[in-house]
């Protein structure tokens, strides 16, 4: 569907939804916010995930602003909920009303309610959408003088959902150059006006950096995988690499942090230590600190936060060369990169050979770890993120 047809469809839907928006706006007077806010955030979840951690970093970078965060989808766990509380912003979970397919009309009404909240602020606030479907559907109902910003993480089905609403946003951020390139290519194919393409900016997130690199063990003893169990992460491939490597007799432990059990076959489980989802950031940092290598075998990525976290702890990165990972990981300087198009058997061989090389060359492992810690200090801080956002969010 071309951009012009998407706009037409959005306008027709807008006419049908108008009575719900008016009703919601009226209801907003019955239960006002009772506080004034400078920023309205729309985030889908607070559960485990890279997008959620990115949104948390954005919220943390705006800690000197009075902000309210609306969570619009039902989260599967509360991994980052307390971290969002620590930002000092007000949190409101509206998922029971906006993520209920049996009562979807409430989603329409809530667009009007929150529109009312935004329009009644004494000073025009800023609206920031962290890849929330509800946030996009809200965008047309917000007055034009109120600046809206969005962040899109990967080129996927969500890229199509957002497109009819892009004209309402002042700026579009992405932590991945590849995502921007893919999105602009889609713009060209669907006849999106060039003015929309000019709105994109690269925005690398920030993380809380450890004060000092962890004291690493002599040599390689633990390889770490951090992430959810999903098809693109190819967890089963990591498990196969664990078997290939450990069958050589090398005493290397392969630890998995995340809900990955259903992605590892019974015959490969004995080669893996599965920790499950780790919600406690202290526990996760301790796991990073006691590991020497982060392994990623993803079929595609943007720029995963786990790479930033691992580098900040001085881990070597061994990954497929996908997304923006090659922009930060240089061969034998920060780690090793495999061609994602290699056959599976060759990928397993590649990863296993590099791990065995590092096991046999502890000095090389130590040098790469030091390089990564220094790189993270320069590029990945929350302060650096705040500086990049300052011109847009009035920080």
Describe this structure in words.
This protein has 395 residues and is α/β, with parallel strands linked by helices. The chain folds into two domains: 3-204 and 382-393, Glycogen Phosphorylase B (Rossmann fold, 3-Layer(aba) Sandwich); 222-379, 3-Layer(aba) Sandwich (Rossmann fold). It is 44% helix and 14% strand. The chain is built from 16 helices and 13 strands. The strands form two sheets. A seven-stranded parallel sheet has the order 3-2-1-4-5-6-7. A six-stranded parallel sheet has the order 10-9-8-11-12-13, sandwiched between helices. α12 (305-312) packs across α15 (362-379). The longest helix has 28 residues, at 3-30. The two termini are 39 Å apart. The mean pLDDT is 93.
What key attributes describe this structure?
single chain; 395 residues; alpha/beta; Rossmann fold; 2 domains; 7-stranded parallel β-sheet; 6-stranded parallel β-sheet; 16 helices; 14% strand; elongated
Main pleated-sheet profile: 7 strands, parallel
User: Based on DSSP secondary structure assignment, what is the total number of beta strands?
Assistant: 13
The Rg value, from CA coordinates, equals 22 Å
CATH superfamily of the largest domain: Glycogen Phosphorylase B
Q: What CATH architecture label of the largest domain applies?
A: 3-Layer(aba) Sandwich
SS field, number of helical segments: 16
CATH class of the largest domain: Alpha Beta
Which fold name fills CATH's third level, the topology of the largest domain? Rossmann fold
Q: Approximately how much beta-strand content do the residues carry?
A: 5-15%
């Amino acid at each position: 569907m071309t951009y012009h047809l998407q706009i037409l469809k959005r306008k027709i839907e807008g006419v049908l939804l108008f009575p719900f928006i008016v009703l919601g706006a009226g209801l907003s007077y019955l239960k006002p916010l009772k506080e004034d806010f400078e920023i309205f955030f729309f985030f889908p979840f607070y559960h485990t995930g890279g997008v959620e951690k990115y949104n948390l970093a954005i919220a943390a970078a705006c800690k000197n602003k009075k902000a309210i965060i609306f969570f619009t989808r039902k989260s599967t766990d509360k991994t980052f909920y307390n971290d969002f509380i620590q930002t000092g912003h007000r949190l409101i979970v509206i998922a029971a009303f906006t993520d209920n397919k049996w009562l979807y009309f409430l989603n329409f009404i809530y667009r009007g309610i929150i529109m009312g909240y935004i329009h009644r602020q004494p000073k025009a606030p800023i609206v920031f959408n962290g890849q929330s479907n509800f946030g996009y559907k809200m965008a047309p109902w917000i007055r034009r003088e109120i600046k809206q910003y969005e962040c899109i993480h990967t080129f996927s089905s969500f890229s199509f959902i957002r497109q009819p609403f892009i004209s309402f946003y002042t700026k579009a951020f992405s932590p991945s150059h590849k995502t921007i390139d893919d999105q602009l290519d889609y713009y060209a194919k669907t006849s999106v006006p060039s003015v929309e393409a000019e709105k994109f900016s690269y925005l690398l997130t920030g993380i809380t950096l450890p004060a000092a690199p962890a004291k690493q063990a002599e040599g390689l003893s633990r390889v770490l995988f951090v992430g959810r169990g999903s098809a693109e992460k190819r967890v089963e491939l990591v498990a196969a690499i664990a078997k290939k490597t450990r069958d050589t007799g090398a005493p290397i432990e392969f630890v998995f942090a995340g809900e990955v059990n259903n992605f590892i076959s019974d015959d490969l489980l004995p080669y893996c230590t599965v920790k499950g989802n780790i919600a406690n950031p202290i526990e996760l940092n301790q796991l990073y600190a006691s590991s020497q290598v982060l392994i990623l075998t993803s079929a595609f990525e943007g720029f995963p936060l786990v790479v930033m976290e691992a580098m900040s702890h001085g881990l070597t990165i061994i990954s497929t060369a996908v997304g923006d990972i090659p922009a930060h990981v240089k061969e034998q300087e920060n780690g090793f990169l495999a061609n994602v198009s290699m056959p599976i058997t060759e990928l397993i061989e590649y990863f296993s050979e590099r791990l065995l090389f590092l096991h046999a060359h502890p000095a090389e492992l130590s040098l790469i770890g030091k390089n990564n810690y220094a790189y993270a200090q320069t590029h990945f801080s929350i302060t650096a993120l705040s500086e990049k956002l300052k011109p847009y969010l009035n920080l």
